[in-house]
Amino acid sequence: MEMQKSTPRAQRLVLVPCPCQGHINPMLQFGTFLHSKGFSITIVHTQFNSPSPCNHPEFTFIPIPDGLTVPLATSGNIIAILLAINAFCKASLEHCLTTQVMKQEPEKKITCIIYDEFMFFSAAAANHLNIPSIILRTTSAANFLARITVIELHSKGLIPFPDSVSFDLVPQIHPIRFKDLPISPWDTIEKFMELIIDVHDVKISSAIICNTTVCLDESSLAWIQKHSRARIFCMGPLHKITTAASRTLEEDTSCIEWLDKQSHKSVIYVSLGSIASIGENELAEMAWGLANSKQPFLWVIRPGSITDSDWIELLPQEFREAFGERGFIVKWAPQREVLAHGAVGAFWTHCGWNSTLESISEGVPMICKPCFSDQKVHARHVSKVWKLGIELGDEFERREIERAVRKVLVDNDGEEIRVRAKDMKEKIQVSMSKGGSTYNIVNELVELIMGF
Ligand code: UDP
């Protein structure tokens, strides 16, 4: 993407990422972009799930105490972890800024604090120190709107909802059904509400950066801007505004050599992101669905992502023998490179927002199997609104999987999806080139920050 020339300047930006893989990546990508504009970047992060500094020697990384006990940090309850971090870290952040950041290079003023929406303690700290702040939202505008709807429904006593309405459409956020609402599975509904009400309470910050694009989220963005006093900067896909990779886990690049040997657009890439997991039965259905489709597959199986197993011990032995050279399994892939590879024709995804955006940006049609939270909203939009893929039903059974794989990759009834995916990739490219919506907004944001 062509950008205005960098201007080295004595301005420091402090970035506060949320300690989850899918949130850290876009924040680091955004930091890389801002650094290319001449800003000095300091990443202030929790000790919990800290990002790896070695991939970004151009940034200063500073850990702050996060107050998490070992049982909480290892509980997997992301809601409880985020609530605890927000309760503890305002003081840690203020202390870090005043005793470390401001003293290290006093000639560089902290121009702005840019924080992940889930790190809302940062807004209070910034306000206290009289520093402007900006929010980074790493999810889609459609999901943001769905979360607002959850808050409204809860205030009317309509959440939790009875099973009888699960498949009913939620008014105003077509085509989301009650069962698709982004409600967290990790804690009680009260705790979840406590968190998202604070996330949505934007009183102080000057602007909101959204990792999405007008091509996808136009109507949701328009609604959000109308109801927000802070200006919205729609800057996605963030991974496309910088060429720098922001790797956080060790990637197995041998899969690229395997992809090099496959035919054009023949491979289904399968990954459920960094958090989702599946049980033994689902694993077997997935495996046999893939094998029976007779299409090559590249499958990311994260250690620990199959319940009650360390890695792939529970994969049926006959399946392992059946796929031979036609399949490749890795623990973690260089996903953006994989999706951009000419051999990849489709992506079986859990519909985390980064994966969804990465797939759309490369024109790769999707099979959606969401697990929780925003994934369900995205799966619904991919299949019913943008029509860039298909969503698997709740039955999750091998014949359905086999049909879905063949449909998105080779069968005639998937041709429309493949064409739409290619068209959307082109629209995004246009939005990022000179004069496009993202191109213009990116430059406006840099001007805003320089003016603080
Ligand atoms: N990812 C990757 N290699 C993998 C699987 C995932 O690099 O083998 C990256 C992927 O490119 C994306 C992120 O991990 O940027 C996952 O984020 P997402 O929002 O899709 O899902 P989450 O992990 O938050 O559920």
Question: What's the topology here?
Answer:
Layout (H helix, E strand, L loop, with lengths): L10 E6 L4 H16 L3 E7 L13 E5 L5 H4 L4 H27 L4 E8 L4 H8 L4 E5 L3 H15 L33 H12 L6 E4 L3 H13 L4 E4 L3 H4 L12 H7 L6 E5 L8 H14 L3 E4 L16 H7 L3 E4 L4 H6 L3 E6 L3 H9 L4 E3 L5 H12 L3 E3 L6 H12 L5 H18 L4 H14 L2
Parallel strand pairs: 1-2, 1-4, 2-3, 4-5, 5-6, 6-7, 8-9, 8-11, 9-10, 11-12, 12-13
Uridine-5'-diphosphate (UDP) binds next to α1, α12 and α13.
Output the keywords.
about 450 residues; six-stranded parallel beta sheet; Rossmann fold; 2 domains; globular; seven-stranded parallel beta sheet; alpha/beta
Radius of gyration: 22 Å
Distance between the termini: 25 Å
What is the C-level CATH assignment of the largest domain? Alpha Beta
Structural class: alpha/beta
What overall geometry do the principal axes of the alpha carbons give? globular
Biggest sheet statistics: 7 strands, parallel
Query: Treating each run of at least 4 consecutive H or I residues as one helix, how many helices?
Result: 17
CATH architecture of the largest domain: 3-Layer(aba) Sandwich
Please name the CATH topology of the largest domain: Rossmann fold
As residue ranges, the low-confidence spans are 1-8
Which strands sit side by side, in order, in the main sheet?
3-2-1-4-5-6-7
Structural domain count: 2
- In the CATH hierarchy, what is the superfamily of the largest domain? Glycogen Phosphorylase B
Helix content: 40-55%
Element-by-element helix/strand order = EHEEHHEHEHHEHEHHEHEHEHEHEHEHHH
The pLDDT mean sits at 93
Structure ligands: uridine-5'-diphosphate
